[in-house]
């Protein structure tokens, strides 16, 4: 590293991961993540507990990022943070810290859109997608199809009208008695099950939009009926239940992705967000890409779930364009791409 390197410290605190990362001239040096386990027993993220955990974890996480980058605070060129979308209380912790730090070091502040950053996670390592590409961003909070024309030029071409797909995974997992977050557990049990064992709805929304709220209601009523006949129905059929739920969710995701590729005539296809870890989605998509001649991009798992490296990547492109934020910036819980 030269002495004139641009070092940016990025903070992510939109939901339940507290994360910091240092990027040097576009190269991510580290990605420190403190996961909040406090939410497990509640079956979902509790906003106030998340804010408190961010308060507790943020400075140690930042200290570790600066230390392992091998730099001193005085070498930082800018401070980046997630402005939204996310939980207001969680965002406030990150924004307030980022402002105070930038103010004390007298360096620029860079706001980053979390959804934009999930997509820019594809630029942390090779191979990188070519523009334009279509990205399916699937997480606990979002399900979006995005046309990406350039690093900072993105358009949402379809999205969920209700629950996010990760939420659908987690809520059905809860109905099956699995702990939060249930998505990875559905994935695990689905590997042993038959995806055609039960038929859960495949909701078709107009255009490129999604709806995932129907499946949890369908599963709820289905289980209620089955449990009346056999109280051990879930435990005896857990693998088949998980495989069948996963099948419907993945089908719904892919129907609209195929439609988007067709409509926009783009064969560069990427997925981002925590649910891109799902092996059913990965396997089906990999086969589909071969069949259709798409170039498919899936980031490393650590860059799929919430992390500050993706915030740092977005900040790098904004720094190059001189897109800085003013010191009176506030979080936007429903920030749009
Ligand atoms: O992107 P992310 O880490 O956080 C948000 O911004 O929401 O995504 C978390 C979501 C959770 O709903 C979790 O259950 C889901 O991603 N998830 C999975 C898998 N791994 C994480 N869902 C299905 N299969 C997985 N293997
Ligand atoms: Zn996220």
From TrEMBL:
Binds 1 Fe(2+) ion per subunit. InterPro entries: ATPase_NBD (IPR043129), Gcp-like_dom (IPR000905), KAE1/TsaD (IPR017861), Peptidase_M22_CS (IPR017860), TsaD (IPR022450). Its main location: cytoplasm. Residues 27-312 form the Gcp-like domain. GO terms for molecular function: iron ion binding; tRNA N(6)-L-threonylcarbamoyladenine synthase activity. It catalyses: L-threonylcarbamoyladenylate + adenosine(37) in tRNA = N(6)-L-threonylcarbamoyladenosine(37) in tRNA + AMP + H(+). GO terms for biological process: tRNA threonylcarbamoyladenosine modification. The keyword Nuclease does not apply. The keyword Metal-binding applies. Its cofactor is Fe(2+). PROSITE patterns: GLYCOPROTEASE (PS01016). It comes from the Bacteria. Fe cation binds at residues 114, 118, 306. GO terms for cellular component: cytoplasm. Its EC number is 2.3.1.234. Keywords: Acyltransferase, Cytoplasm, Iron, Metal-binding, Transferase, tRNA processing. Substrate binds at residues 137-141, 170, 183, 187, 278. It is found in: Cytoplasm. Required for the formation of a threonylcarbamoyl group on adenosine at position 37 (t(6)A37) in tRNAs that read codons beginning with adenine. Is involved in the transfer of the threonylcarbamoyl moiety of threonylcarbamoyl-AMP (TC-AMP) to the N6 group of A37, together with TsaE and TsaB. TsaD likely plays a direct catalytic role in this reaction. Belongs to the KAE1 / TsaD family. HAMAP family: TsaD (MF_01445). This is tRNA N6-adenosine threonylcarbamoyltransferase. The lineage of its organism: Bacteria, Pseudomonadati, Bacteroidota, Cytophagia, Cytophagales.
